[in-house]
Amino acid sequence: MQTKKVRLPKNPQPKEWLADDLSEQRIASYKPFNFVDGEGVRCSLYVSGCKFSCPGCYNKIAQSFHYGTPYTKELEDQIIKDLSQPYVQGLTLLGGEPFLNTQVCNHLCHRIRQEFGHDKDIWSWTGYKWDELMKESDDKKELLNLIDILVDGRFLQAKMDLTLQFRGSSNQRIINVPESLKSGKVVIWDRLVK
């Protein structure tokens, strides 16, 4: 009997994939005022381009760095305007892969910190694992230092669990970034529903 080979996501070496080489600074979509991409009411920016190629990816079309529309100052201004609403808790970065689109994500996150300080939180999903990001390029580390919550790890179909909070597979973690950076080890988000 022949066994079917299980396809897995790609695994980059440290600094193998760089935003400067890959990103076209394009946006797959922007979804203001949603409730699914993190805690509270959020504005979600889906960037274009991802090299992990996770089998079963829910947003496969956004894996292409050519997909979508260019990031613009007008879109950025709209995001800031939407975030200024008192009922909006924060921004979520998804993709695609935010850490391969740091030109857009770092610029936007710096502006959010400038306009709102830490009154608005920033979440990001990534295919990178925390320990991989610790060995990555400076632009990726800069983005990590700007966000509050990171959902890390590749989506793995074999570990898919639709009952998980804000995750698609059980290998993924919801990480409190400031606490993790301060302690030097991964600190899981304290509002995680087990």
From TrEMBL:
GO terms assigned for molecular function: 4 iron, 4 sulfur cluster binding; [formate-C-acetyltransferase]-activating enzyme activity; metal ion binding; ribonucleoside-diphosphate reductase activity, thioredoxin disulfide as acceptor
Keywords for the protein's UniProt record, in alphabetical order: 4Fe-4S, Iron, Iron-sulfur, Metal-binding, Oxidoreductase, S-adenosyl-L-methionine
InterPro entries named among the record's database cross-references: Aldolase_TIM, NrdG, Organic_radical-activating, rSAM, rSAM_sf
Main enzyme class: oxidoreductase
Cofactor: [4Fe-4S] cluster
Protein's UniProt keywords contain Oxidoreductase: yes
Transmembrane segments: none
Listed EC numbers: 1.97.1.-
A Pfam family it matches: Fer4_12
Stated role: Activation of anaerobic ribonucleoside-triphosphate reductase under anaerobic conditions by generation of an organic free radical, using S-adenosylmethionine and reduced flavodoxin as cosubstrates to produce 5'-deoxy-adenosine.
Family the entry assigns: Belongs to the organic radical-activating enzymes family.
Name the record gives this protein: Anaerobic ribonucleoside-triphosphate reductase-activating protein
Organism of provenance: Secundilactobacillus pentosiphilus
